[in-house]
Amino acid sequence: MDYITAKFAKLGVDNAPGQEIRQKTDHLALIGDPIDGVLVDFSHGDVDAFEPLPGSFEAFQKGYEVGGAQAYTEYRGKAVIREQLSKDLESFTGAPVTPDMLILTPGTQGALFLAMGSVIGRGDKVAIIEPDYFANRKLVEFFDGELVPIPMDYMKSFDRAGIDLGVLEEAFKSGVKLLEFSNPNNPTGVIYTREEIRAIAELAAKYGVFVIVDELYSRQIFAHRTYTHLRAQGLMDPDNLLTIIGPSKTESLSGFRLGAAFGSPMIISRMEKLQAIVSLRCAGYCQAVFPIWFHEPEGFMEKRVTAHQEIRDDLLSLFRAEEGISVRPTEGGSYIFPKVEGLNVDISDLTKILRVQANVTVTPGTEFGPQFTDCFRLNFSQDPAKAHDAIVRALQIIKRYRK
Amino acid sequence: MDYITAKFAKLGVDNAPGQEIRQKTDHLALIGDPIDGVLVDFSHGDVDAFEPLPGSFEAFQKGYEVGGAQAYTEYRGKAVIREQLSKDLESFTGAPVTPDMLILTPGTQGALFLAMGSVIGRGDKVAIIEPDYFANRKLVEFFDGELVPIPMDYMKSFDRAGIDLGVLEEAFKSGVKLLEFSNPNNPTGVIYTREEIRAIAELAAKYGVFVIVDELYSRQIFAHRTYTHLRAQGLMDPDNLLTIIGPSKTESLSGFRLGAAFGSPMIISRMEKLQAIVSLRCAGYCQAVFPIWFHEPEGFMEKRVTAHQEIRDDLLSLFRAEEGISVRPTEGGSYIFPKVEGLNVDISDLTKILRVQANVTVTPGTEFGPQFTDCFRLNFSQDPAKAHDAIVRALQIIKRYRK
Fold it and tell me: I need a labelling partner for A7 at 20 to 30 A (CA). Which of A65, A345, B249, B294 fits?
């Protein structure tokens, strides 16, 4: 097998969220009849249940009406939009952001790709938390980096995320060039404590490691939790740090594909060079939607976060009532990552069975690290009643496939 | 310099169309006063002069109103849209296209990036025509391929494009894995003859070379010219061929970032895997605009092509009236690539001088091949009167910097 064939053989999407339609299910040894119910796709949030930010369509329309000056922007994004957004991000994260420290991208995925591609090259060691967002692992492989897994024992104590700082330091000592992690963590919904974030920053500073922190869900933090922005700690060289965020999740703007990366101007310049050959720019008319972000109507975000917390509480109580299913309460973001003891089928087949027999789509844990063979992820940004019924069905089906 | 630093040092964007705002101009030794006039940016088409296809905004709006089912599509694009577009592309190009042979991408640049990334790997030889679209060269470098230039003597005879088929066969013999070229050619506006296209296909078949043909401008062909779709010739293994197209140019939909690649299902699958980590998908709401493409109001495209032909004729007559400036008449697309004899300044400085003294933006020839040190490219999809005046000004300024 040649280099490029081998590369793509490793790069799977069949279990990726949203791609379930391509899965084969003929081989499944199904037990019992399906349970009827309205389809719920927990692989991503439902933007019909939680609609796009008010004013987003109107902002797009205004951009369209501007015409050529909005259709063709600098590759890094329209200057006047970067000027405003850099102020918003500075105030949100608590550390300086200037327009030259910011690039607008097609979604947060776009930002992540450009960031990884601008920092790592062939053979570079990259530290990735396990579990963490599945694309991190795939990106390291695509750029021919070497993956260095850092375990996070998120079930050990609910007082901290559980990153193994000893393993992290050993990895940094061994020559890791980049640490990439999400906070809140995807898939567990765990938030790193202030102490953990500061320890990561100090280690990165000590060993000169570049850090990309994916803060996609950092505007959706649940009660009694404090969120710590790494970039505001003043412990790292700002030129070795990049923060990624976007309005696709809590704000439900995924259909516009909007993302942003901010930090090291040198890396932002590289990202722009790369964006020039990857897709030119975040779609010009869509860029016009950025300015409503961080300027939602009074109380809108608080209400939305509270609504998510209520769904979380409801679903958590369903999972916790089930013997042999353990789950850590989500602290930020919309994910739950239950762990099921005594499964008779592998997790990839279980997710297919849930589709066929419960009309429920979830994502297998193995997408987030090879060891998560008894976990699955669900995004609870859904209609509350439908989500409740769907999890009741799913739990009934899961029973059939356990020892 | 480490691997990644060296890679980005080579990957420039400062001379790329649309990035002129970042150029430094302090070093220029300017002769005479500037000539007043309305700014014309010939680095790309003016979508205010030639507006987006009628119905495009309304199609977007309908997509937005669909909601979640439009925001989240398969990574390769929404199935129902691919079904219709595959029929349209089959009928346009004259050879079968099925939905599994098609991927929707963020612009044609997106398609090109995914295509190149799916075919070539480290060390692979890639044949690139000179002159041709600047991103081709940069993509080969980004993917660590080895560039094999194929000269095209487009000024030799106006009866053919002028690709050197002897050099091409030698390149193929030497182990080239991929040929990538644009037709109509960017920047010259030349169309390959049927004989040239068939010769390319036969050589590719003989040596098992993969071909990516960028047909972005193939709907804008001027009078008395016949356009030949490589994929309709039946001379190549269809699994070794990919065609790229999009509605950003003649159709003026660039602000939505829409592109398409179609051909080898195996490569399309790879492109989808890559898109999953690059930007997930072409923006969901924007995908809703695809169905109006190839279904323009009766006579709309003919009228638009005729309008471009008239601007071409006008600007060509201005260039031809100037001694020592040679230009081949554009056969398809919106580019003119004049060659200026006896310049006293280098072409990159000339383009900066034109910005400063004539309020005119053009792209230096060296973006399209290192040898084009006395050429520049302009996109004449502009307001006709403004474009005329701008070229009159540019020619007056150019006179000052010639021997």
Answer: A345
Interface contact flag, B68 A48, Cβ < 8 Å:
yes
Nearest 5°: the CA angle B379, B57, A248 is 100
Q: Residue A204 to residues A168, A208, A260, B378: CA-CA distances in angstroms? A: 10, 6, 23, 48
| Interstrand relation of A335-336 and B40-41 (parallel, antiparallel or unpaired) | unpaired
Chain B: closest CA distance from residue A64 (Å): 8
Please tell me the distance in Å from A284's CA to the nearest CA on chain B. 5
- Best mutation target among B43, B270, B273, B287 (most A Cβ atoms within 10 Å) is B273
A32: left (phi over 0), alpha (psi -120 to 50) or beta: left
**A305 and A140 Cβ atoms separated by less than 8 Å:** no
